[in-house]
Write a structure and sequence with these properties.
- It is built from 17 helices and 11 strands.
- It is α/β, with parallel strands linked by helices.
- The strands form 4 sheets. Strands 2-1-3-4 form a 4-stranded parallel β-sheet. The chain has a 3-stranded antiparallel β-sheet with strand order 8-7-10.
- Strand 7 and strand 8 form a beta hairpin.
- The protein is globular and about 80 Å long.
Length: 464
């Protein structure tokens, strides 16, 4: 059997050590600020042994917030994404901690030391994230990978992975139709394997071979794989069973998810109402047209509703009744529209849809009626995403891109449905904040043309 690289065995350990060190650094910075800039008169019980409890609470909050924001994924995410995640986590923790200290002091204390701490935290996060990312790439060079693919469209994954050559080096591509012994011989010359859209029988053989040879294997999941991931284990007998729930969320999950939506959407409406009023006035002043734009969308169980957005295009932009997606320089977009679309503020009125129960904060993005009909004709499984309410944000919005295919969006949405938890909803809401700091990616290439180019290159290699 091939032995796994020694460095890989210590990757998780090194990341945990880095995590502990960073949490310790930020906690010490908090202690220094609190000890030197907040009077002992306000915290008489915490300038003795009580300070250790205070530091522990701060450290626990940091760990929780960094986990929610994916702030520990050094090397896995790009440096800018890790740093942005840590900035959001630091803001969350310091915001909560400030009001925690106000409660302890029983009065509003000065905010300036906490603002100074936040600025210092940003510097520390930048330096440590940069150092950890640099260390990761120095210690772990991209693995020599081979991709086994089932059909031509599966080559789109190689195109995506080639954009992360710092982490993945897909140097060989082999069709699953090749002789099984030849495939195994090619696999033996590589450090890792990607099994992508391969027929089940062949996939199982390759997976078992790699598992037996201790070869790292990445598998692109099929719809059935994702459904099975959400199954419950039953061990009443000596034959294990997997119970697949085909009803979406259970009654308790639906109740708490709805309660969560009501509370957060109400708070958001109260806090954001001044901003929404300013946007509404700006839209009205520019051309005198309606402030809102409504559009029919499909949600849970195929029910239809009118989604609400701030109008960002000229009146009657779709006068012919035909849906024409707006491009970046579309002349139909108004001046105010360009600003609110770039900052995604045009989506704010959907908080109303959430509050009245037509949408959820997190869930599959509700599609237009004609799009649902089109996708379901091409992909019958597309109906599975209608087991839950449509959402303002979700897996596909956070991890997808402008040109993510309908099938890939379906897989992302099903991963959410099958792994639903209230904690996951909170995590995805926090990650949405990170997405707001990133310019929407259009990838800038014709995916089909790239796939055809890859196919020609593979065919030429096979002739040699």
């Amino acid at each position: 059997m091939k032995s796994a690289p020694n460095k890989s065995e210590f990757k998780d350990l090194i990341r945990k050590i880095e995590t502990v060190f960073q949490v310790a650094v930020l906690t010490v910075e908090f202690y220094f600020m609190w000890h030197h800039y907040y009077s002992a008169a306000n915290f008489p019980h915490y300038h003795g042994a009580g300070k250790f409890a205070l530091m522990m609470v701060y450290a626990v909050l940091l760990i929780f917030a960094l986990y929610l924001c994916d702030g520990f994924k050094f090397g896995q995410l790009k440096f800018t994404d890790v740093f942005t995640s840590q900035v959001i986590a630091a803001l969350m923790v310091n915001f909560i901690t400030y009001f925690q200290l106000c409660l302890i002091a029983n009065k509003l204390i000065s905010v300036w030391p906490m603002l100074a701490l936040t600025a210092i935290d940003f510097v520390s996060c930048f330096c440590l994230s940069y150092l950890y990312t640099l260390m990761y790439h120095e210690m772990y060079s991209p693995k020599n990978m081979v991709m086994i693919y089932g059909n031509e469209s599966a080559l789109s994954l190689k195109i995506k992975m080639d954009k992360r050559r710092d982490k993945y080096a897909v140097n060989t591509v082999v069709s699953a139709n090749e002789d099984s012994e030849k495939i195994k011989e090619i696999i033996s010359r590589h450090d890792a394997v990607i099994i992508n859209d391969v027929p089940s029988g062949i996939r199982n053989d390759i997976l078992k071979y790699c598992f037996g040879q201790n070869i790292i294997t990445y598998v692109v999941p099929k719809i059935s794989d994702i459904i099975t991931r959400g199954a419950h284990e039953i061990t009443l007998f000596d034959t294990p069973l997997m119970l697949v729930n085909s009803f979406g969320l259970n009654p308790a999950e639906r109740f708490f998810k709805r309660l969560f939506d009501i509370i957060l959407s109400f708070i958001a409406l109260v806090v954001l109402s001044p901003l929404m009023l300013i946007i509404a006035i700006a839209i009205k002043i520019e051309d005198g047209g309606p402030v809102f734009y409504t559009q029919e969308r499909v949600t849970k169980d195929g029910n239809k509703f009118k989604i609400i957005k701030f109008r960002s295009m000229i009146v009657n932009a779709e006068a012919q009744g035909v849906s024409i997606p707006a491009t970046g320089n579309d002349p139909r977009i108004t001046k105010v529209g360009r600003v609110i679309r770039a900052t995604r503020l045009d989506e704010l009125p959907q908080i109303i849809n959430i509050f009245i129960g037509q949408m959820s904060i997190v869930g599959p993005r509700p599609e237009r009626t004609e799009h649902v009909e089109k996708y379901m004709a091409e992909i019958p499984e597309f109906a599975y995403r209608l087991k839950v309410k449509g959402g303002l944000t979700g897996y596909a919005q956070i991890f997808g891109k402008y040109n993510t295919t309908a099938y890939d969006k379906l897989r992302l949405d099903l991963m959410y449905i099958e792994n639903y938890s209230l904690l996951l909803d909170i995590k995805l809401i926090v990650l949405t904040v990170r997405v707001l700091f990133k310019k929407e990616s259009t990838e800038g290439f014709d995916i089909q043309a790239e796939i055809e180019k890859q196919s020609r290159e593979i065919a030429e290699q096979n002739k040699k």
